[in-house]
Structure formats: structure tokens, C-alpha cells
Amino acid sequence: MRARLLALVLLLLLAGCSSGGTRDDGRITLRFQSLAWQEESVEANKALVKEWNATHPDVRVEYVQGTWDSVHDQLLTAFEGGEAPDIIHDASDDLADFAYGGYLADLTDLLPARLKSDIPRRSWATTTFGDGVYGVPFLQEPRVLIANAKWLRQSGVRIPTPEKPWSWAEFRRITEHLSGQGKYGIAWPLKEPVSATLNLSLSAGGQLFHRGADGKVTVRFGMADQVVPRTIHEQVGTDRSASPTTLGSGGSDTLPGFFGGRYAMVPLGFSYRQQIVQQAPKGFDWQVLPAPAGAGGLTQGVSPQTLSVAEDCPHKKEAAAFIDFLLRPPNMVRLALGDWMLPTGTRALGDPALRTSEHGWATGTALAGHLRPAPAQTVRGYPEWKDKVATPALQEYYSGAIGLGELRERLEEDGNLVLARYQR
Description:
Number of helices: 18
Helix content: 40-55%
Radius of gyration: 23 Å
Distance between the termini: 52 Å
Mean pLDDT: 92
Shape: globular
Low-confidence stretches: 1-19
């Protein structure tokens, strides 16, 4: 009797440690943590989960609402406590430590050929660490210029297109031309300055992180890396063409001033168009422009949204099958429309709904081929480097508190000390 009780207790303990499992009736239950937050996106995700459950009675997916706020720490706690969801929605620049730490399943042999071939190799590079693939990149967004179309037309400046974008030097001249009398040509929302600076710097030929023959990464803040931060610094401090008050703001914080005619343009992620459609005053005329180009053309770094499977998931094959269902081309289009972002899948990207001129969709899809893995994608220790070194250093540089030389010193010397701890 005692042995039977001990066996029952052990069984219950093991069940409690698993994020997913099999019911007494043989049905598998998988927990899918989604970070969708916009109403349309949440509805699309929940609808697809419902459709899966209706056609897969033996493998039920439970929708779990997550949040982008502090997702790294939340997942780390869940992994270490054995309570991670089976299917994990995240971003590719957050995966490196989880992948190398053994928390995520290698999907190389679990994903179907259809999905592997539909997503370009450059996108798969964002979720490939060592010899394994630890996530499926499925949504991405370029950074674009949201412009007051009437203001630009009246100013007589050349309107850029993906075929003929502004150079960084021309962009600086135009923002100065648009400024004056308490108004600014540009408002940079740089509360989180690192990803915006690094990703846009690829257009100028910047890279910042350099991997040596020994596999170790070092930071080198070269001339190409300096083009974008120097442009922003000069717009704020020299030309007075960029509002100094928005440097500590998030993207949404700049919209009231943009709608009120205080700023001619705001650099924002492509998905912000939804907020603009919802919040813009009636009759407000706006348009989407490509970000400036440099030696690297329109190239931008991106960190796509991803879907991964926890290493502790007891039903990896079924979890991968759900991901495949979620990312079938028509479903990927639904997810992209819900989040106002671009799908990574080639077939989905060709859908007419994503190529209309309305709300700038066509400009975004024209930029899709120029998107590349963000410089920090495979850098272990990047979250700490970003939070403790790069963010405060860039904030101080943009505000004029430090010069370019000190910025370089802190990014390189302090930054390399942080990264070295992860590469021993």
C-alpha cells in the first residue's frame, strides 16, 4: 500500500513539472504563449488556435497571453522552474542565451520542407545558433519614416522612394530645411536607442560586432558605425532639426506632436501604422517613406518575431506541427495583417493584401528584400551589453552629455568586458 502511495505521489510531481502533457483520455495538451498585443493580432492568434483545436481533437492547444514587457526574465524564470510554455513566441535577438543554455529545442529535423523553403535563408540566420535552429522567424518590420505628407509637399523637398531613397547626408539637409519657428523636421523616439541605431547602421555599412576566427565577438565602433549616431547627434545639437524632448520617448509618445504639426517626420517601426490609422485626426494626410540609405543601400537589421519549442516539451513533434499550421501562407498573412507587419514567408509576402498602396503596405513590402539579421543576433551577452553599456552611453551621446570619442570608448572597452564573460 505504501509503495503504491509513493508511486502516485511521484507521478503527480512529474506531471507538475511538465509544461504540457497527456490527459487520461490520451489527448495531448500544449501551452502556446503568445505575445500578440494589438487587438487585431490577438484575435487572429486566438482564431487560429480555435481552428487548430477544431481539426485536431487529439492535440489541444491552450492559448496563454504573454507580454513583451520583461519577456526575457519571465521566460528565464519559467525555464529554470520547469514551467515554460511548450510553444514560445519571442523575438530572435532574445534567443541566443536560451538556445546556448539548452532551454530551446533544435527544430532542424522537426520542421517540414515546405516551411524551410518558404522562409529565406537570411531569415533563418536569425534563429540559427551553432548547428541548430531554435526558432521559426515569421514576422518582421523595417523601420520607416512616417511623414506629414502635406508638410513635405508644401516644402518642395524631393520625396524619396525605395527606388530612389534619401542618403543620410540628404536626409540631414532636408530635416534642417523643414525646421524652424518651433517646429522640427524629425522627432527621434530613442527611449530604447540601441536596436534602432544598430539596425539602421547597416545601411551605412556598419556592423559593430565582429566575430574572430576563434568564434569570439568583439565590439569595434568604426567610421561606418558612426554615420547614423552622428547624424542624429548633429540633428539634435547642431542643426536643431530634431526635437531634443523626444529622445527619451517611446514611439507612441511622439504621435500627438506629429499629429499636431510639431514634427514633419517620425522614424518608427512599420507596425506603428495601425496606431496612426486609429489615432490620426480626420483628414490628416500622412505617408510611409523608406529610411535613408548609405553605402549599404537600404539594408536594415531586423529581429523577427519567432516561434520556438521548449526543450522540456514532451511533445515536440506535435508542437512543431502546430507551428507549421500557424505559419501556412494564408495564416501567415492573417498574422501579418493583425500585427501590421511583414511576413517572412515568400508566398505570404506576395499576397495582394500586403502590396496595396493604402497605409504604405507597398513601401514596406518593397523593403522586405533589404532586411538582414540584426547585428546582435548571435551575440551572447547582448541583453546585458545593451542594458548596462550601450543604452546609457547612446542616451548620453544623443543628449550631448558625452562626445563621440567617449561613446566609442564605452561601447568598445566597457562593452568588450561584458561580452568576454559570456565567451570564456
